[in-house]
């Protein structure tokens, strides 16, 4: 039996609904795969801040960081802002605190789900750098002005080396499941000094990984290829704001945010959350698509499997992915995908399908 301590932060809007769904699926893995999870629920949300002024603190994050992993629903409400005027998000503070430098955002086509582009086989991992790039200056001192405002893009060699190591090793891992083993850097080195450095480090890391193919495109043309020829991409890596935008394009390619999971990782910590936000427009109605969150829980298992050399976690992750695929293929879909299933219907169907997956 392997035991893991998981901190669970449901957050706002549909966050608690999709978190409940993923916890049910993880519970369904316990007996079958010889796993035990202790879930420690923490209430950090924009709603809590509105009611009490309480935000996540350094001490909270030190304590949370002693767990094995964090499952995060969604945080933020449009009308709740910090004193600096920004939307609240414990996920942003956790990225800085734990040094989570890479956000892994896989997308793939699921049989039976409508998608808007001409392609037969999309299976792509977008890796967004999440500790610097265009958001490097978020904490910079500034004088508010109605005339001029600036942001700062900073790229460091140290982060690029770690980021590209992750990209090439992800391509190698994915290849075991049938992908080509290829990494593309999307950048803007023709206009941005920071991206010249990024491109140079990418070339160095690519040279050390000759078994994995590599390519580089300017981000503007790369964004077009993503829509016109998405099958050309396996692992795509980019700086912070480009990666943010590219990962949402990628989610749109395969049917939307309800299907797009993510993992924010460092070499030692992982926070697993759907790519979507709190979707307040549909909260509380029981209609949120839980698939992105459930696939994020599968990414957590995959990551725990790698960190602890635990094949039980890796097997459970595979069973969840297979069950999600067969559920969607069988026509069970929430409203965002044109179906009528509720969140709970999806959870029951996925847990039922896991019972059919051969160990
Ligand atoms: P954020 O900036 O926090 O990422 P956002 O402004 O991009 O949030 P989301 O909360 O992600 O917005 O939602 C965008 C739209 O997608 C919403 O209108 C919502 O209804 C829909 N949506 C997002 N996630 C889901 C989901 N899991 N199930 C169904 N619909 C969703």
Automatic annotation (TrEMBL):
Domain Isopropylmalate dehydrogenase-like, first and last residues per copy: 5-350
Swiss-Prot/TrEMBL cofactor(s): Mn(2+); Mg(2+)
Single GO biological process annotation from the record: L-leucine biosynthetic process
InterPro entries from the UniProt entry: ICDH/IPMDH (IPR050501), IsoPropMal-DH-like_dom (IPR024084)
UniProt xrefs under SUPFAM superfamilies: Isocitrate/Isopropylmalate dehydrogenase-like
Keywords of this entry: Amino-acid biosynthesis, Branched-chain amino acid biosynthesis, Leucine biosynthesis, Magnesium, Manganese, Metal-binding, NAD, Oxidoreductase
Highest taxon listed in the record's lineage: Bacteria
EC number in record: 1.1.1.85
Sample GO molecular function, one term: 3-isopropylmalate dehydrogenase activity
Family classification: Belongs to the isocitrate and isopropylmalate dehydrogenases family. LeuB type 1 subfamily.
Subunit description: Homodimer.
This protein's name: 3-isopropylmalate dehydrogenase
Origin species: Brevibacterium celere
């Amino acid at each position: 039996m392997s035991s893991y301590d998981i901190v669970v932060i449901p957050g706002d809007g549909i966050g608690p609904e999709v978190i409940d769904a993923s916890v049910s699926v993880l519970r369904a893995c316990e007996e079958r795969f010889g796993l035990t999870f202790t879930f420690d629920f923490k209430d950090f949300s924009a709603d809590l801040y509105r009611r009490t002024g309480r935000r996540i603190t350094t001490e909270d994050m030190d304590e949370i960081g002693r767990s094995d992993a964090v499952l995060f629903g969604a945080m933020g409400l449009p009308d709740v802002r910090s004193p600096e005027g920004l939307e609240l998000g414990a996920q942003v503070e956790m990225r800085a605190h734990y040094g989570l430098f890479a956000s892994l955002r896989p997308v793939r086509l699921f049989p039976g789900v409508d998608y808007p582009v001409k392609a037969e086989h999309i299976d792509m991992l977008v890796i967004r750098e999440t500790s610097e790039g265009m958001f490097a200056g978020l904490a910079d001192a500034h004088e508010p002005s109605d005339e001029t405002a600036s942001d700062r893009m900073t790229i460091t060699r140290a982060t690029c080396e770690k980021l590209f190591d992750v990209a090439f090793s992800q391509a190698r891992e994915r290849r075991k499941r049938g992908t080509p083993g290829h990494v593309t850097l999307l950048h803007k080195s023709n206009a941005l000094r920071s991206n010249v450095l990024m491109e140079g480090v990418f070339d160095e890391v690519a040279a050390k990984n000759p078994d994995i193919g590599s390519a580089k495109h300017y981000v503007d043309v790369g964004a077009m290829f993503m829509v016109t020829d998405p099958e050309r991409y396996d692992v795509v890596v980019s700086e912070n704001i480009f990666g943010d935008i590219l990962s949402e394009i990628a989610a749109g390619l395969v049917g939307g945010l309800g299907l797009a999971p993510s993992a924010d990782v460092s070499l030692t910590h992982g926070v697993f959350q759907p790519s979507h936000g709190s979707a307040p427009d549909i909260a509380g109605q029981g209609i949120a698509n839980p698939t992105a969150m459930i696939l994020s829980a599968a990414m957590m298992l995959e990551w725990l499997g790698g960190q602890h050399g635990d094949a039980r976690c890796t097997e459970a992750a595979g069973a969840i992915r297979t069950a999600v695929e067969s559920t969607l293929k069988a026509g069970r879909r929430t409203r965002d995908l044109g179906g009528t299933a509720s969140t709970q219907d999806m959870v029951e169907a996925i847990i039922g399908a896991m019972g059919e997956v051969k160990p």
